[in-house]
Amino acid sequence: MLDSLFSFREHRMIQRLLDALQSALRPTGEGLGYFKSIIASLVVVAELLGALFFGHPQTPRGQVINLDEWELVWRDEFDGDSLDLTKWRSQGNGPRRGGYWDIDQAIVQDGNLIIRTEYKEDGKYGPGWYSAGLDTRGLFEKKYGYFEVSCKCPPGVGLWGAFWTMSDGMSNPPDGSAADGCEIDIFESFNYNQGARHDAISHAVHYDGYGDGHTSVLVGVYKGKNIYTEYNTYGLEWNENELIFYINGVETDRLSGVWVPQVAEYLLLSVEVAGTVETINGQRVPVLAKDNNITMNPPSAFPIDFVVDYVRVYERKPAA
Are 203 and 187 in contact (CB under 8 A)? Predict the structure, then answer.
């Protein structure tokens, strides 16, 4: 019955809340340490209650990843003066949600990849909002490892940056699991104008396509540090049994079972403009979202940039 009442995220938060309450009732240490243990547990309880009842983000509190246990096997530091087309390709050109994707919006300068969002009256596909999506499909695909991006999220309403993975198996007939491939959203930055969630990102996983069989889970919403003005890292540790998510090297959450793909996936970096593509007079046309609308930003905010310092992929070293 509880499974029908609560989402995955709510189940996880309730379990953490019960653990924190137990810690508060059974503090450790002596003297001042005893009281510090109680206070620390109560702080966690208060945050979890805010997350559960008001949708507030959680603070990453899990294990810290030790990169000494990993070997770097692929990377792009964006040190050149143009996009390395041996590593990246356009994920699509033309209408995409509320705007257009155009690879020309992906710029490399000053040691960064910049995916720029701006309005173009004379754009390649007509007047509208332009951004870009990049992927490594057919160029680099990997099963298992640690995948990490360092970036500044795009600071604006009605758009979001993302680092994600995907497999062609996502289009297979539904089979009830991610084993043959899925979409793993290592991070998405939806929350620019969302109050307490302003400096937070979300993790999610989708499998069995995007039709009637589509299954997804919002893994959680977690705090970063000044995510629009400072570089934060967002990572995924993927092994045969689990998906483990990280912000700035600290674990946020994890999934197991049907959510874990068992085939290689490719990488994606993108900026989406909120909206939908509709067919009008026989033409596919992007239409902006009514509420979370990019035009809510002041003109002085543009162009809005998603700034990526690096993307790195690691393989776990053999046990000594």
Answer: yes
Residues 56, 57, 58, CA angle at the centre, nearest 5°? 125
Distance, in Å, from the CA atom of 267 to the CA atom of 175, rounded to the nearest integer, reads: 23
pLDDT digits (tens, 9 = 90+) for 73-90: 999 999 999 999 999 999
Judge residue 81's burial from the number of C-beta atoms within 10 Å of its C-beta, 0-12 exposed, 13-18 middle, 19 or more buried.
exposed
> Cα(210)–Cα(44) distance, rounded to whole angstroms?
36
Q: Phi-psi category of 209—alpha, beta or left, where left has phi over 0 and alpha has psi -120 to 50? A: left
DSSP readout, 80-99? SSS--TTT-EES--EEETTE
pLDDT digits (tens, 9 = 90+) for 28-44: 777 677 778 778 778 87
- Extract the tokens encoding 296: 């809510």
Chain length of the chain? 320
232: left (phi over 0), alpha (psi -120 to 50) or beta: beta
- The class level of CATH for 67-316 reads mainly beta
Place of tokens 């257009």: 100
Are 43 and 64 in contact by the 8 Å Cβ rule? The answer is no
